[in-house]
Amino acid sequence: MKAAALLLAGSMALAACASDEDDSASGGSSESSSASGDLRIGLAYDTGGRGDKSFNDSAYAGVEAAIASLGGEVQELSPNDDASNRPELLTQLAEQGFDPVIAVGFAYGDIISDIAADFPDTTFAIIDSTGVDLGEGNVTGLQFAANEGSFLAGVAAALKSTTNYVGFVGGVETPLIQSFEAGFAAGAEAAKPGITVDVKYISPAGDFSGFSDPARGQIVAQGIFDAGADIVYHAAGGSGTGVFEAAAASGKRAIGVDSDQYQTVDDPAQQAVIMTSMLKRVDNAVEAFITDFSEGNVEGGTDITNDLETEGVGLSYSGGFIDDIKTQIDEFAQQIIDGEIEVPTAP
């Protein structure tokens, strides 16, 4: 597989963007950065905004990479605490002439078609949701086979577990995050039949605070470690730092998500417990979309799926903690690519 060879560059880009994070980018605040060129990109973040060292930061890294290559500027907006202003964020970016406008996260899925209808000459993209069947032709869905990458995370957890007990912490109990859970559990079972997979969520469906509450993430993960797990995988956005804190306090291991979190966390104690991360190459997908847009090659009303075959998902190898099981991981990945293993999308 070629995926591992791409990880270091992506990690370095994410680490660089994280170091530039401005804590003011929350609660509806905005930031902008510019370079030469006419490209004007609008970026509406998911809960937590830039600086989550995960999903949002990966999207920002993709925009920055595109600007470095093509020139232009980016305007960033973050939702307020209850995320009730998501429609206003997209509207503001479109009204100000930013094009394309990129919505980071499935939570924009319920409202993006209305905004797209109001601005038919603006090109929109939404991460982790669909651009199909919205009734508009100016929305592209950037999707990821997170279940496939999570399957490999489950394989790694099972092969490294000495207690035959691993855990999963989801940020919000939604179908999208359940696809991470389903893949992880399937991978763990495939690698070590009969292993226990303990699943917990920080908040229920509709309550997006589970993506930005490290304290609650730590409590949930600590309960799983106390019950006997020695490795916990999180798909909880900014709450994942709490999972790392619990792992460090317990002398156990954790698996990050979205970006190479071994490279992006600030705390050496947290870094030491991150044995791998499940990579959703949001940065690559965003950069490719912007490049296509600049070349006039975006077709609205469609979805672009990033999976193992396209190297859109995978595992990180930073720290060398799973180098010894890479052969087994690669074998499972190839079976998925070849269609010999069908990874579930729901628990």
Automatic annotation (TrEMBL):
Protein's UniProt keywords contain Manganese: no
Q: Which residues are the signal sequence here?
A: 1-18
Keyword tags:
Cell membrane, Lipoprotein, Membrane, Signal
Q: Where in the cell is it found?
A: Cell membrane
Please give an example of a GO cellular component term from this record. Answer: plasma membrane
Q: What is its main location?
A: membrane
> Which Pfam families does this UniProt record tie to the protein?
Bmp
Domain ABC transporter substrate-binding protein PnrA-like, chain residue ranges per copy? 46-345
Q: Which InterPro entries match?
A: BMP_lipoprotein (IPR050957), Peripla_BP_I (IPR028082), PnrA-like (IPR003760)
Instruction: Look up and give the membrane topology term.
Output: Lipid-anchor
- Report the family membership: Belongs to the BMP lipoprotein family.
Indicate what this protein is called per its UniProt record. BMP family ABC transporter substrate-binding protein
Highest classification ranks of the organism = Bacteria, Bacillati, Actinomycetota, Actinomycetes, Geodermatophilales
